[in-house]
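Hi R.,

Quick one: here's the DUF1453 domain-containing protein sequence you asked about.
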Amino acid sequence: METKLVQPLLLVLVVLSIGLVSWLSRDKNEEAVFKKLKLFPRWFKFVGLFIVICGVSVPWIFQGLLVDGGNHLGSIYIIFGLFLICFSRDKIEDEMSNIIRLKSFYRSFGAGVVGFFFLTYIENSISDDFSQLSADTLLAVILGFYLVSYYVTKSKIRSAE
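And here's the predicted structure, written out as C-alpha cells:
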C-alpha cells in the first residue's frame, strides 16, 4: 500500500522539478536578465505555502505514508515548498531586495552549517553511537533561516524608510 502511493508522489515531484528548471533556463531578454535575478513569479509563493502545508499534514492524516514513525516523504515536500517560497519574486522587486536576498543567503548558509554541526554534536552527546543528521535537515535549516532572515531584514529596512 505505501510503496504504491509513494512512487507516484515522488514522480510528481520529479516532473515538477524538471519543469521548473526548464522554465528558469529559458532564454529571456538579456537586459532583463542583467537587471533582475531569475526568480519564479509571485504566485509560486502561494503554491509553495500550499505544498508545505500539505507536506506537514497529509502524511499524518494518512498513517500509511509514515515510515518508522517519521514524515520522510513530507519532509521532501516541505523542502520543495520552501524552495518555491525562497525563489519567488516579491510584490516589489528592486536592487535593495536583491541585496537583502544575497545577504540572507550568506547568513543562512553559515548558520545552516554551524547549526548542522551543533545539532549533530547535541545528538551524538545524548546517544552512545555516532550518527549524522540527514541532508534534508540541513536544507530545511538553511531555507528556513533564509526566509526568517530575509523578511526580518526587509521589514527593518522598510520601516526605517
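The chain has a mean pLDDT of 77.

Cheers,
M.
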